[in-house]
Structure formats: structure tokens, C-alpha cells
Amino acid sequence: MQNFSVDKSGFYGEFGGAYIPEILHRCVTELQDAYLRILESESFKKDFDQLLRDYVGRPSPLYWSGYLSGKHGCSIYLKREDLNHTGAHKINNTVGQILVAKRLGKTRIIAETGAGQHGVATATVCALMQMECIVYMGKTDVERQAVNVKKMQMLGATVVPVTSGNMTLKDATNEAIRDWCCNPTDTHYIIGSTVGPHPYPDMVARLQSVISEEIRKQLMEKENRAVPDYLFACVGGGSNAAGTIYHFLNDDAVKIVLAEAGGKGIDSGETAATIQMGSIGIIHGCKTLVMQTEDGQITEPYSISAGLDYPGIGPIHAHLTTTRRAQVVAVNDDEALKAAFELTRYEGIIPALESAHALAALDKITFKPSDIVVLTLSGRGDKDLETYFKQIDAD
Ligand SMILES: Cc1ncc(COP(=O)(O)O)c(C=O)c1O
User: Annotated catalytic, 112?
Assistant: First the structure.
């Protein structure tokens, strides 16, 4: 059996590690030394479980979709992260990290955000804990996710629009790291996905692993078996996918399908299909697959979905796909839009554009009637309504 856990230096196979500037060495080492002790302490577990239950609204339901099951000729369940407080899986991680930050004595929180979901989730827990919150967001995303920007401001956060690069998630992350370098002592950086230097990919995966823990229990109740035949999730940086697969990684019978953003097509030059188009490089402190030119310049990613247009990928996913434990499919903008409208019309659920990529990936696999499939619906579509309305007007 292969080992998919992180090693002591933060590597999954050849991917991961902590490639950071000298100025961050002390605070990253502090976090590396403390995170497992904190996450495994009884006091953390008690506070985390209580907030996940009473504040986030967990467990999130595992919903059998009659429409999708009928369409694909098997049994398909949706793990309803869209029903969480603030509308996506991102809150699981921010609740956990704010508890870590408090235990480390930090007083100031910074975050990056693409779709605004992680920014809202961070601003929310900062309001809850009355901590200062600064969120970096690319100007392009500020414009396409306007409601989330207003929400963050209402929650008391300062939203800083970033105007470098193509003004999206990668550029916001660069600025957040710059801020962290200037304020390494009092500031905790709440990274929103399984990316960044060790221990972030492992810490975020552990905090999101509540998703797979619940799937096992809920599937046992509904199907009298804990293990599905397939797990589906979309991947931006990879946190909802990591949470979905975490407690199934050593069950070889479970097939893992990851949906990345094809944008306008993987050969179009306008894509965010990092796993298929990337090569080994270093981005935001982590060795992973990166979309880059031959001389190592990061290629600007593109996707209709603000949460998926990142030119890197979590090191765990780079490892899972290069070792073929997970299969990756690219889903283009138009396929994701079609899947979003279908779920809305035939199931009464408006999904986030990111989650719609996972839904569209179902069309790329042939199932047996006995197959049990669990797909994580990572978020709700409220933040994407403008994009959906534009599509309706264009049709
Ligand atoms: C609803 C939703 N799903 C998925 C993602 C992608 O992130 P990750 O790959 O970390 O789950 C985002 C990112 O903002 C999101 O908002």
C-alpha cells in the first residue's frame, strides 16, 4: 500500500516542503512545531467540534440525488457543504485556524481570497473572535464577486484590492505573503486551501477531513457500507477535495476523481488545468505542479470560476495524481455552466461554479448500476448569480 501522508518535512512524495524567505522562518517553524500538538489537544477538539456543530451547522447532509442518479444510472449522493454557515466548505478551515491562531497568541489575521468564500469565512471567524482581519483579493475578483466583498466589509474586515498580474488569486496570495513578511510576529496567515508552505497543506487537509469522517458515518447509515465506489470533488488549491478523500485514501477500492478548471479548453491558452498542464516548480512556498513557461515564469491561469483559477495545486493532489491514486479531468467553462443550470432546474439546488465543475465531471465517467458515488457540493451559487444571469441573457 502506498503512503499518502505527509512526512516530517512536509512532503507528499516529491511534492510539498516549505520554501520560504528567511524572514518567515521563525513563524513558519513555530507553526510546524505547534500545529499537531494543538490539533490533537482535547481543548482544541472540544472547541472545534462545538463550533462546527453549533456555529457552522454540521454535520452537513449527505443527500441522495434522484436526478443525478437517474441521469447517470447509479446511486449519487451530494455532500452538502453548500448548506454550511457562509455557504461553503471554507468555514471548516477558518474555524479551525482561528482557534490555532488564538492558541499561538496571534492578534492579527490576514487571508487571501479568490471567489471571496474564504475571505468571507475568515472575516466571519474574525468577527466571532473579535480579531483584526485583512483580506487580499485580486481586483478582477473584487469586481466579479462584489457581494462577497460587501459581506467581508460588513463583517469588519479590510479588503485590499490587488492590482498586480491578472489580478486574481495568485496575485492576492503574493500580497498576503508580503504582508506576513512585514508582520511575522503578531500575524497569523489563514491560508484557504491545501497550498503554501508546510504545515499548511496538512493542517488544512486535517481541518477539512471532517467531510470524509461524516461521509463514512452517513453512508453506513444509508447504504450499510462506509466506503463508496467513487468520490468526486473540484480542485482549486484542493481543500474540499482533500477533506472529501482524507479518510478514504487507504481504501484502494475507492476511485477518486478530481475536477480541475479547463477554462476555455486545456489547449486554448486560457485554462487553469494545473495538474494536466503543469510541471514541477515552486509556488507560494510549496514544491508542486505549477503552470509555467519553459523558463519558469508562472503562466496566468484562467477559469470562469474565481475559486479555481490558481496556477498551482496542493502537493497532496500532485502526489495522488502522479502516482495515479487519483484521476483528474478538466472541465471547461461551458460544461460547468451547463451542469450548474441542470442541478438548479432538476434538483432545486443552485451550486457554486466551482462545485459545478465536479458535477460536470460525472459526464466523463461511465458508471455501473451498482456504483455508489459521493460528490462534494463545495458551495452554494449565491456569489455566482451575476455570472449565471449573464449566461441566461446570452442564451
Ligand atoms: C465553493 C468553492 N468550492 C471550491 C473552491 C476551490 O477551493 P479548494 O480547491 O481549496 O476547495 C472554492 C474556492 O474559493 C470555493 O469557493
Answer: yes
**Ligand 1 atom with least separation from CA of 236:** 9
* CA dihedral of 239, 320, 338, 144, whole degrees rounded to 10: 40
Sheet containing 62-64, strands listed edge to edge, beginning at the edge strand earlier in sequence: 62-64, 75-80, 372-377, 230-234, 255-263, 326-332
Q: Using one digit for the tens of pLDDT, what is the confidence trace for 42-51?
A: 999 999 999 9
CATH of 57-88+209-394 among 3.40.50.1100, 3.30.70.100, 3.40.462.20, 3.40.630.30: 3.40.50.1100
> In the structure grid, which three cell numbers stand for residue 117, read together?
468564500
Cis peptide preceding 59, ω within 30 of 0: yes
Distance in Å, CA 244 to ligand 1 centroid: 12
Is any ligand 1 atom within 6 A of the Cβ of residue 117? Answer: yes
Domain boundaries, the chain: 21-51+90-204, 57-88+209-394
Q: How far apart are the first and last CA of the chain?
A: 50
Of residues 69, 75, 90, 355, which has the active-site annotation?
90
| Rg of the chain over all Cα atoms, to the nearest angstrom | 19
The C-alpha atoms of residue 155 and residue 160 are separated, in whole angstroms, by 15
- DSSP letters of 222-233? HHS-S--SEEEE
Using CB atoms within 10 Å of the CB of residue 192, give its burial: 0 to 12 exposed, 13 to 18 middle, 19+ buried: buried
Run of H or E residues at 46:
helix 42-51
Asked about 81 being catalytic, the answer comes back as no
DSSP class of 209: T
Q: Where are the beta strands (DSSP E) in the chain?
A: 11-12, 15-16, 62-64, 75-80, 108-113, 132-138, 158-162, 187-189, 230-234, 255-263, 279-283, 286-290, 326-332, 372-377
How many helices and strands (H and E) does the chain possess? Answer: 16, 14
Evaluate if residue 191 carries a pLDDT over 80: yes
User: Does residue 92's CB lie within 6 angstroms of at least one atom of ligand 1?
Assistant: no
What's the confidence (pLDDT) of residue 166? 85
Reported pTM: 0.98
Q: Just give the CATH number of 21-51+90-204.
A: 3.40.50.1100
DSSP secondary-structure letter at 60? P
pLDDT in tens, 130-174: 999 999 999 998 987 888 999 999 999 999 999 998 898 999 999
Please indicate whether residue 69 is annotated as part of the active site: no
Distances (CA, A) of 219 to 57, 104, 361: 19, 37, 22
